[in-house]
Amino acid sequence: MRSPYAYQPHGGALGRAGVGAVGAWTFALATVAFLSANPLLSAALIAALLVAGALSGAQRAVRAATRAGLVLGLFVVAINALVVRRGETIWIRAFDLPLLGQIDITAEALAEGAALALRIWAVLLVFALFSARVNPDAILLALRRVAARSALTATLVCRLVPLAAADQARLREAVMLRGPGAAPVGRGALARRLLTGSLERSVDVAATLELRGYALARAPRRRGRGERLAARPADLEMTAAAAVCLAVAIGARLSGLLDFEAYPSLRFDHDPISATAVVAIAVIALLPLAVRAR
Amino acid sequence: MRALAGAPLALRFEALSFRYPAAERWALERITLRIEPGELVVLAGRSGSGKTTLLRAACGLVPHLDGGEFGGRAVIGGLDSREHGPGDLAAVVAYLAQDPEAQVVSTTVRAEIGLAPALRGAASQAQARAVEEAALALGVAHLLERTTDSLSGGELQRVALAAALTGRPSLVLLDEPTSQLDPVAAEELISLLRRLNEQWGLTVVLCEHRLDRCLDAADRVIALAAGALAFDGSPAAYLGWALDHDEESATPLARVCRAAEISAPLPVGVRQARARLRPLLECAPSGAPAEAPMPPAVRRRRSRPADPVALRAAKLWVRHDDEIGRPEALRGLELEVRGGERVALMGRNGAGKSTLLRALAGLAAPWRGIAEAPGGIALLGQNPSDYLVRDRVGEELPGESGARALAAVGLSAAVDRDPRDLSGGERQRLALAIVLAGRGEAGAAMPGLVALDEPTRGMDGGRKRELHRLLGRFGEAGAALLVATHDVEFAAEFADRVVLMAEGRVIADGGVETILSGGWYFSTQVGRVFGDGIATVEAARKLLAARRSLHTNSVEVPR
After folding, report:
1. Rounded distance, CA B307 to CA B99, Å?
2. pTM for this one?
3. Which residues in chain A have Cβ-Cβ distances shorter than 8 Å to B63?
4. What count of other Cβ atoms lies within 10 Å of the Cβ of residue A276?
5. Residue A91 lies inside a defined structural domain of this protein
6. Domain count within chain A
């Protein structure tokens, strides 16, 4: 069974644009998510990323990231509510937990946890889209431009996870095939075996990469004029959208918009200007994908 | 192909020695050899004799990646490996290692095959042409749009070779390239290498245990023993040398010819062997019947209705769970195997052999039909190392049932050893013990069915013989043995029944002499010369002995 995050060739803007352009787009959206915990901004980003997933045919990756985001988000909300003792609106008063002592659960702590969970969800969606829609082969070639002598690094970046996934499937089957008289294999032993095996095989793959000519003196790739012209608009649109999104978000923050304060009482900007900025970020992020959806 | 006059040497070793860190003995010891451009060289030798190390030294992985003690010189296409690492040597040499999964770098087949031209800055049209030509040559054009993680081992092997060749190397090193391939694909691969060698002057160094597949295509054979050069000469001379020093490393036909007292030079291929043996097979003395009686059949066990059913598959359908290519791996398969039978399961890559084994072991759920092993099943997969998780053999197999399983595979004395220190054959036996442990009923060591998936991959003749003996012991204990294999020669020696699969169904099912002697591809080397009914060296020897006994001294048998 293939991982939902595994790359699958697909059309659409994310599939057609170059690694650099898609990298800039995803980096910009992840950065925007980190610029403010304002739930309006996080919600708009999540909505944009869900639409982006649909437009680029990465629904499976988006669903998996959403599941992971929900699990992780619930965990963060619960922990934040139990650990943080700030906030004016107490919903559940003074109960005792082992180790944590006396606990008050406040609406503000819950809200802060929820805002954090939304940011985590947004960031997971960004990486799911990148993983499912950006060709690792293109990443490999891009890495070569900056580190031609480091085939091992390139291998670890591009192949360690797929190799580990393949090894894990095989090792799990081997565990299932052990006779009832053989020693049972716990998760720790399996994880150790998996890690050492994957690293060893990564070294073998790095050797293969070297022998394919990764470190050979690089000749500039000769492209035809038509090819060059065809590749640029999609890249330009993605890069421009990334830059504008980032600029709008930074501008909004510098202007004092999109604030979020959880304590002592919950307060976040949701005035028309903030809302406009948030919608603009989402729409601009989606524009290149919508234009080149087919 | 003869060496190209005037061209620089493809490969030169001068007193080359190498020892891995912490190893007691040298993996290579003072090897001196020269390989001319345009030669096709077969590298022979037992497991552990240093063949892989030699190939890795010929592409710079030794000593640049595999650190250790290095002496002497290796000059590849004029580049000294002391000064040039594998990255530089990639301009002149390509290397195809044993494990195809460790040779895949890219996500899709098209990208994988096009990687070498892309790294060399080839124009997109040149890249596309290189990919197309390599894909057509290796028979993988239909796989170009597939992702590499969806390919079988055999498909990966061909894709890896295509990827290695698109870099246009002048020297290509191949470490057991046919070990994962079915007989059809293996023959096609050897033919392709020969064609590239003859038409484009590609120098090929091919390391193989299955010499019956490639000796006919070779110009020269180099044999290693314990890291040292043991033989360097023509294929025919090699066969004579092998029969004198290590009969297991000679081809089956060479063994038959030696038994028939055929004089040197021994025939290298089937065609030559047929010509040399024809007088013995056709000449009949005056008054004698033209056809000598068939030899007493090699003892083959037949199943009896009283034997318990060890495997039952009825109207079995299994579907792939990853929606890749043809959705059904098995399509209404019918098969029954009884206790004590030795069955070789054969067929092309993707025929459904491994899926059948997985369904029997509960690793693949039937979509329809029945797959069952009523007396229990112990299945050993293709990679024995996957079963070895702990640092001591005894820790893998504790207690009484563990000890019984170790005894069953002859490893009782190894309880305190580290599995990583065991030889390849011992590791396979330990993995077998792990899957067998505790599966026998009422304290017996054996379950009803012992199944192995491609157990002879990368094995030399001696280790195959060892495995054969071990499986024989299991069979005598009452277990049915089911071995999925591409190794026709091993199947002929081991099995008493051969089940041939294609497209997820059984297409032939019968005795070894019937199935492995009449076909074009699924036929032993002996079967190709002797025809219907004779598939093994033993059967051929007996037939020749019977023929010779009919000859009078007046019949001159050309030698």
Report:
1. 40
2. 0.80
3. none
4. 13
5. yes
6. 1
